[in-house]
Design a protein that fits this description.
Layout: E1 4-5, H1 8-13, H2 17-20, E2 27-30, E3 32-34, E4 38-40, E5 47-50, E6 53-54, E7 58-60, E8 63-69, E9 79-85, E10 87-88, E11 92-95, E12 98-104, E13 109-110, E14 114-117, E15 120-127, E16 130-131, E17 135-136, E18 141-142, E19 146-149, E20 152-153, E21 157-158, E22 163-164, E23 168-169, E24 174-175, E25 178-182, E26 185-186, E27 190-191, E28 196-197, E29 200-204, E30 207-208, H3 222-232, H4 237-253, H5 257-280, H6 288-301, H7 307-327, H8 330-335, H9 344-357, H10 378-400
Length: about 400
Amino acid sequence: MPKTVITEQDFNARFNLAEGLGNSTPIRFTSRIFNFYIEIEPQHRELIFTDCDFSQPILFCKGVQLVQVVEDNNQEPDLFNEDETNVFSESVTFEECEFQEQIQFDDIIFNNKFRMHNCSVNNASFRNTTFNGLADFWLTTFNQDIIFYKTDFNKTTVFSMATFISNVLFTYSLFSTKVIFARTKFNKGVDLSQSIISGTLQPFDLQFNFKEFKAEYVGKDDETFQNYVDRDAIIPLVNKVHTFQVLKKAFEDIGNYSDSILMQREEKRALKELVKAKLKDKDSTVNKGDKLILRFNRLSNHYQSDFRNGIWFTSVMVILFGFLTLVFTEEFHRHFCWGCEFNKDYFIKGVKFLFNFLNPTRRITYLDSFDLRFYGIAYLFDFFGRIAVGYGIYQTIQAFRKFK
């Protein structure tokens, strides 16, 4: 349907509170273009905007409502008082709307359903906003950074198939019941670390662009940290770590262990960055051993997400420590020479040695026949080889448990 421009006078005429009192018919706008600044006060009727374009800002604000005064004497005529309120008691719906400028819901309370379906939002502000009914942002695209600051979601909240083009932060937001992230797209970053989840977080088939998930290290600078999460929409590196921890647990709670491993992988990758930054900052809460552990976890099975890393790591450890063990024996030097003719029997013995090295529980006496050199240093490399190969095998098995 072609869209037509609505004048400010026509728009205001639809919001006559006196006429709306006692009338349950929704205030509805369909396929209209709004090219003027709009202030919407609490109404006695449901608000529905369908297929509308807003080229100027929209402000949901406090307003004066006529409230009926009930008298004990029924013979008296009805009386009405003016009452300032920020409570929208009826449903508010936006369907297939485009917001070119800011839409602001600061300090507003929605006691009924709030729906924003299949909309395109450039700039939205939800500071100290309260949703006491359903809050549904199905298929809505948020084109800029957005912070849900101290936003209370007291009933079911839906972000299914929503798309966040830039960062989204739920800073001190409350999820009291159920929040659904189904096929939600995060093109950059998401911060759930500062949210209060007393209800249930239900993620499903989340879509990330992990390479574009940027985070900043703030160290112990509290002022910078606060500005990042409540004003600048920048995600601190420590928040990135905790966000993936929250998502990992949420996937585990619904039995989705494969996606929980994916969240764990990204958590450990972010933790590796955090440890590196803390070491550079001389933070005493971490040490170089933490960095080494994370590095070995990355090399051995990509944080339990890829068994191929485990096979590769184990094979390298077998060749490395097997060679170092063998090179300190007389048997090796007796049969090794450059440019000599290939000897099939010696080659088979070498292969047999490496396959035997693949077994961490092999007997130590297997080295007795190799005539050790340099005070038996081969035993030392054999010992370290057992540890490295055993670790690689364990990590490979852990990666195979990804789909438990």
